Amino acid sequence: MTHEPVNILMVDDQPGKLLSYEAILNLLGENLLKANSGREALEILLKTDVAVVLMDVSMPDIDGFQLADMIREHPRFQKTAIIFISAVHLSDLDRLKGYERGAVDYLSVPVVPELLRAKVTIFAELYRKTQELERLNHELERRVAERTEELRESESQFRSLANSIPQLAWMAYPDGHVYWFNQRWYDYTGTTLDELKGLESISQVHPDFMETVSRKFQHSMATGEAWEDTFPLRGKDGSHRWFLSRALPIHDVNGNIVRWFGTNTDITDRKQAEEALVKSERFAAMGRLAGIIAHEINNPLEAITNAFYLLRDHPSLDQEARYFSKLAEEELRRVAHITKQTLSFYRESQQPVAVSLADVLDNVLELQSRRLQVNGIALDKNINTNGVIHGYPGELKQVFLNIIGNAVQAMPNGGRLRIDLRDSWGRSNGDYGVRVSVHDTGVGIEPEHAKKIFEPFFSTKDAKGTGLGLWISKGIIQKYGGTIRFRSMRRGERRATCFSVFIPTAISAAPKDGSQVLVA
Amino acid sequence: MTQGRPVILCVDDEPNALTLRKLVLQKAGYEVITASSGRQALELAQSRPIDLLLSDQLMPGMTGTQLAKEIKIIAPKTRIVLISGVNEMPPDANIADAFLSKVEGPDALCNVVASALSN
After folding, report:
1. In this structure, is residue B93 part of a structural domain?
2. Residue B60 lies in a domain
3. Which class in CATH covers the domain with range A7-136?
4. Angle at the Cα of A147 (from A143 to A150), degrees rounded to 5?
5. Which of A153, A476, A496, B62 is the most exposed place for a label (fewest CB within 10 A)?
6. A353 contacts chain B (CB < 8 A)
7. Half-sphere exposure of A75 (CA within 13 A, CB side)
8. Which residues of chain A lie closer than 8 angstroms to B21, CB-CB?
9. What local confidence, expressed as pLDDT, does residue A392 receive?
10. Per-residue pLDDT at A514
């Protein structure tokens, strides 16, 4: 076996003995160093690394024990192996005990060569092993330091990457508790890690989505399946934006999940664009359909109306036939009225445009101004917003002409008409939008009529109404994703009715409470 | 303006509607000539003077507004009334003196025509 030779220091005041040790130990293939005195031995020790010191106990000047004490005092040599060579005296054995802790041995004279070689070999090997261990240990420490530096670097790279992506990002423990968020999360939510640490839930999730978000997230945490969900998150200004949220498990070498890495991507603009597209396509399709039906009905309707108009005064008809003709003409007028209401909104444009509900209401009130005056109705108008929505002015005008017209008709003997327009939240889904409220102090709505007023052909106005006004209005408002509701109250002689129309303008919303959902 | 009764050129691709509309206008005291297409209407307008063009808007071949533009070239003083079953205002409807829905009925038709002629 080849090995790196180590230094063996032999100390004896008699050169002959040194020569004999050298002869014995030469076979080992180590470096043999010779010293004739304790002083010389110390000089060599200070200059070189020595594996084993072989020394004669009885030397002039510094004897073996003194030399051993001096060697041991030096920190570098505390573990250096020492073999004493001595004629054994009892007193010497006692002194040797003092060195028991270190690697110390002794040989009695006369020296048996095999014994000396064996003892030196053991210590030389021990030294080599120790050196090797130290080297390995050193290497290990170096690699740990290197790796730590690499980790620190990769951690810092990860952080700057995580902070530069447009998404909100976070990391969670395998149980779903988030322990780290990127800067964008803090910027968007206005929170701090201290506020969020240890929380069972993330309160930024829109309350309407908490339950499903929580359920799906917990499912992923339990199964290790990637998590994906779409829901609104509340920003620091209180408004919500839609995010596509994803989380992937990160596994260790054994396949155990050590953490989750999650992102939230803002998809509000995309979602709004998609919704606007769907909406405008639906508008366009309905417009085309209405156009086709209007054409197919209105053309023959005009011909029949003209035919009866001509027939009415025809000289060949007797009194009775003329009467029938007149009845037919009246009925045709009803048909014309209905097709006009349902199919022929005078639409200014094919494409939906930005419509100000404030303008629409002004327009309708202008049309009603004479009737307000004649009936003695006081008008109270509270316009708090322009109420701009995307749609067709004509049909919106029709809706409010219907509702306000009804309110005016409900007050033949005067009263108060109050119109409110304000930005608002939808009650059912929290959408952002505009709300128009029309209050009147008219005859009110009979409780038994309440369920029917939005049904087609329901009318309390006998021959005057088509019974389609509110039905059509509701259809139009629903097309905008909005709602139309009413309340009618009676207290003694006093009555009040309020119609409330909500039209969404945006999809995000602010929840009223800060209730939390378990997502992290 | 032509001598005597005003002359109306009435255009529609649907024969029944055209005949009945003509009769209503005749009853109101107008002289009415009819055409079942824009092309035929243009030929008539070139052969004799007319006071007012009453044309359907949506017709195969040529729309009411297209016909109105051609007529205005031949006889710039001709009054134009467009009538339509689809109550969609065409983009260049301002060429017409009036735009009327077919469901407005004969009385409204006569009023609009009279008013267009008197302006």
Report:
1. yes
2. yes
3. alpha beta
4. 140
5. A153
6. no
7. 0
8. 302, 306
9. 79
10. 33
pLDDT digits (tens, 9 = 90+) for A337-346: 777 766 654 4
Query: If you measure CA to CA, which chain B residue comes closest to A342?
Result: B87
Residue ranges covered by each domain of chain A: 7-136, 165-266, 270-334, 345-506
The burial class, CB within 10 Å (0-12 / 13-18 / 19+), for A114 is exposed
Q: Does residue A320 belong to the interface with chain B, where contact is any CB pair within 8 Å?
A: no
DSSP-derived secondary structure for A166-231: SSEEEEE-TTS-EEEE-HHHHHHH---HHHHTT-SSBTTB-GGGHHHHHHHHHHHHHH---EEEEE
Q: Which of residues 279-318 of A touch B (CB under 8 A)?
A: 291, 294-303, 305-307, 309-310
Q: What is the pLDDT of residues A20-32, one digit of tens each?
A: 999 999 988 899 9
Bond from prior residue into A60 cis (ω within 30 degrees of 0): no
CATH number of residue B47's parent domain: 3.40.50.2300
Task: Give the tens place of pLDDT for each residue, A62-77.
Answer: 888 888 888 888 888 8
Pairwise CB contact (< 8 Å): A310 & B24: yes
Spell out the alpha helix ranges (H) of A74-112: 90-97
**List of chain A residues whose C-beta atoms are within 8 Å of the C-beta of residue B17:** 299-300, 302-303, 306
Confidence of residue B2 (pLDDT cuts 50, 70, 90): low
Q: Work out the pLDDT band at A350, boundaries 50, 70, 90.
A: low
Cβ neighbours of A303 in B, within 8 Å: 14, 16-17, 20
pLDDT per position as a tens digit, A492-508 = 778 889 999 999 885 43
Q: Is B1 a member of any domain?
A: no
Domain that holds residue B99: 7-118
Q: Does residue B2 lie in a domain region?
A: no
Q: In A286-302, which positions are buried (b, 16+ CB within 10 angstroms) versus exposed (e)?
A: ebeebbeebbebbbebb
Instruction: Look at A508 and A356; give whichever has higher pLDDT.
Output: A356
Would you list which residues of chain B are within 8 Å, Cβ to Cβ, of chain A? 14, 16-17, 20-21, 23-24, 27, 58, 85-89, 101-106
The distance between the two most distant Cα atoms of chain A, rounded to a whole number of Å, is 167
Tokens, residue A87: 């004629």
Distance (Å, whole) CA A515 – CA A284: 41
Domain count, chain B: 1
Distance of residue A334 Cα from the nearest chain B Cα, in angstroms: 10
CATH number, domain A165-266: 3.30.450.20
Residue A306 has pLDDT above 90, yes or no: yes
The rounded mean pLDDT for chain B is 89
Among the partner-chain residues A306, A345, A347, the one whose CB lies closest to the CB of B24 is: A306
pLDDT at residue number A90: 55
Cβ burial, residue A223 (10 Å; 0-12/13-18/19+): exposed
Radius of gyration, CA atoms only, chain A: 50
